[in-house]
Amino acid sequence: MDGILISTKKDNREMKELINSLGYKVKKEFLQIRNKKTPYYLGKGKIEEIKEYIEKNSIEIVFVNDSLRPSQWFNLEDYLGVNVYDRIRVILEIFAKRAKRREAKLQVKLAKLSYEKPFVRELFHRVKKEEKPGFLSGGEYVVADYYEMIKKQVKKVRNELRKVEIERENKRRERKKRGFYLISIAGYTNAGKSSLLNYLTGEKVTVDEMVFSTLSTKTSRIKKEDKIPLLFTDTVGFIKDLPHWIIDAFHSTLEEISLADVIVLIVDASEEIKEIKEKLSVSLKEIYNLKEKPNIVIALNKIDLLEEEEIAEKIREIRKFTNYKCVPISVKNGVNIDILLNEIYKFLPTLQKIEIKIPLNNSDGILKWLNRNTTVLSLDLKDFAKIRVICSERIKDKIIGKCLKAGGEVYLYGNRR
Ligand SMILES: Nc1nc2c(ncn2[C@@H]2O[C@H](COP(=O)(O)OP(=O)(O)OP(=O)(O)O)[C@@H](O)[C@H]2O)c(=O)[nH]1
Ligand SMILES: [Mg+2]
Question: Residue 67 belongs to what domain range?
Fold first, then answer.
């Protein structure tokens, strides 16, 4: 479907990507560089020109690359006679289209309700102003009721999301108890987060060149057998200029970032350095809002699209910008993923090597448990069950407790990476 884009900014690329992602095409752009915003967003002359164009070309929708004040939105829709979507509305509509799982649907619903609130308030003022006592009265009560209904729904959705959060908390606690380390994959939308998750864990999360393919988190265990047990979580992408109430609505999903042991911040290397820096700074700002002292590794992805020299230059530029380790990778070609993993390991406590000796008649349950939760190096079942394992620091004490209880002996070997 065809729409037009109106803007007061020079760079409208991201907005056009969002619009395409929603399934519309921008047939024409109307730009008017100005700082002062009018009741119709742009100057009256420009708006008249736009109205004419809309009528002549059967345009069905108008996009505005900005946040409209409710009064501007009402004025524009009234005057132009077609739907008007501002940037946040476009993002919310994309979210609504993509939300599949219950949690994502609830989050989108909360965000949409928060978006609607000021518009309903504006409608309330308008109805009140226009109504004369005794004539067509009651309109303001209808709007006031609607406002109350929104408030009630917000409360209900918040309560339901709180329940989801508690479920998540329990799951996370269980995972930590089992010795897993939690790694979040964060970053600007379309950087390659889901691609990295799929590569590392064998998952089949949707990967797409559209923005905001992922709205729900997915947690999965790394495929590699002989290393520390890592759980990777894919998260919803960041984008600039999101109002705080959208971030709030996505709290239960974004919390995965705040509680991670390490955050892999993935960046699209194929973009201009200016854009890379801008997206990096948006992402870092969001992460800092979520977590005080995050452990971050930057993964500069899609280097398969660049020449060696360009990669080196971009890394130099990123180093000027931040002190975090920056690993150039290509998920597509599986390049440097080992180096990335090594940088992640550096943030984690070292692995523990343990040798255990347990009476044979008491060993069945423990052996099964060790098989599930550690890396078994060797097993000897002659007179005793003798087993050597590597485990994460997190479950060392649990193993010792279990073995001693079964009448066994435990030797710690020191650390191994
Ligand atoms: N050339 C190249 N393309 C890549 C690489 N990794 C991912 N892509 C592409 O980048 C696009 C986005 O990848 P996703 O994994 O969906 O990105 P995401 O960060 O999960 O995106 P959202 O969920 O939409 O925020 C897709 O078209 C991928 O095929 C890479 O290493 N090289
Ligand atoms: Mg994704």
Answer: 2-95
